[in-house]
Design a protein that fits this description.
seven-stranded antiparallel sheet; two-stranded parallel ribbon; about 15% strand; globular; 15 helices; alpha+beta; 11 strands; about 375 residues
Length: about 375
């Protein structure tokens, strides 16, 4: 376990520094970043860019890598007259989200209409190495009960369209409109997974297999399991915490598979309810205990999760890091909590934008 590698992708918004309105500058920002040696990916809408970390085996290297990527991205955005924001959604009222001008993205925009054109959604994806695709499927099955807790931990999209949405992660609510998004079904094998994907493509519910948006999936390009449930966290330290916890969950699932441990029965309605609770309350309310089907404070459930995966965290040297990081986030509030705190002061969107901008750059420079 000690050498298990992982990596992170973070999506960011590009906004006008004065108004906070999304700006279609991703190509220009990517060109500036390339001059500094960073390859930014273009997302569906032209007000977004994505970074991808190196593959690493420890949290210190991951943190250093993510700090550099954010620093270069922030500076590239500034050169383009824009501001980089780590938030699940733009807090202001956008006029539109222009689709990035590539054949694939234009086709997605035409096929899916306002689902695509109202996008502007920024998430965070963690890849953890696994032996093969069948193992990735079995690990995904075991991760499903923990996905709502990971969503609540990273919630960072409470303010949208100049209003408090009433949800800590409004991103996850909007994201669920895609026919291939949300928690994945349970699959018995990679062949069954591939058949499901083929059906979705064949029937037009997806354009191609690049639109498998499930919150955990076998990567299409790497020997990894990819956890995609999170809003992009507000700070680098919160992203590293999320990634370390995800790796601990994956390693625990691998160990449970090796021991043939039984999986926790998971009713679809209970999982859907837990998702909604996590999206609405984040860290500030209750989650659902899948064993008792009772409401339990989300922070208590997260503490239980950390203890559940403690052997894996200790094996890779992350237990102290994760417990300290979780204590910090609970005490300070995650991105959604801090957005709402800023909004509540004066109901002035400028306060929210300032909070997000400061968090995006925390530790970066």
């Amino acid at each position: 376990m000690a050498n298990t590698t992982f990596g992170v992708e973070e999506e960011f918004l590009l906004v006008d520094p004065a108004s906070g309105a999304p700006v279609p500058q991703n190509r220009v920002v990517a060109e500036h970043a390339a001059e500094a040696g960073v390859d930014l990916q273009l997302e569906l809408t032209s007000c977004q860019v994505e970074t991808a970390s190196e593959v690493v085996d420890n949290v210190a290297d991951l943190r250093a890598n993510l700090l550099r990527l954010r620093r270069v991205s922030v500076e590239a955005a500034e050169r383009a007259g824009a501001q980089l924001l780590a938030a699940g959604l733009p807090p202001t009222l956008p006029e539109a989200f222009p689709v990035t001008d590539t054949p694939r993205y234009r086709d997605i925009g035409e096929r899916f209409g306002m689902i695509a054109h109202e996008q502007g959604i920024c998430g965070c994806h963690v890849h953890v190495a696994v032996p093969d695709r069948d193992t990735a499927i079995r690990v995904s099955n075991r991760l499903r009960p923990w996905l709502p807790l990971l969503l609540g931990l990273t919630a960072n999209s409470a303010i949208y369209r100049n209003a408090d949405t009433g949800h800590a992660s409004w991103r996850s609510v909007l994201w669920a409109r895609w026919p291939s998004a949300g928690p994945p079904p349970q699959f018995d094998s990679a062949d069954e997974y591939d058949a499901a994907v083929a059906l979705l493509v064949r029937t037009g519910a997806m354009r191609d297999d690049g639109m498998v948006y499930w919150d955990v999936r076998p990567s299409a390009h790497f020997p990894t399991v990819e956890v995609r449930v999170a809003d992009v966290p507000a700070t680098v330290d919160e992203t590293v915490l999320f990634a370390a916890l995800v790796r601990g969950c994956v390693l625990t699932a691998l160990d449970d598979e090796a021991k043939d441990e039984p999986r926790l029965p998971l009713a679809p309605f209970a999982l859907k309810a837990a998702y909604w609770k996590a999206a609405r309350d984040g860290l500030d309310g209750d989650g659902i205990d899948f064993e008792s089907h009772e409401a339990v404070p989300a922070t208590e459930l997260l503490g239980r999760l950390v203890e559940r995966v403690r052997p894996a965290l200790e094996d890779v040297g992350d237990y102290g890091f994760v417990t300290a990081g979780l204590e910090e986030v609970v005490a300070r509030g995650n991105g959604a909590t801090r957005q709402r705190r800023a909004w509540a002061r004066r109901h002035d969107i400028r306060d929210v934008l300032a909070e997000i901008a400061a968090a995006t750059c925390e530790g970066v420079r």
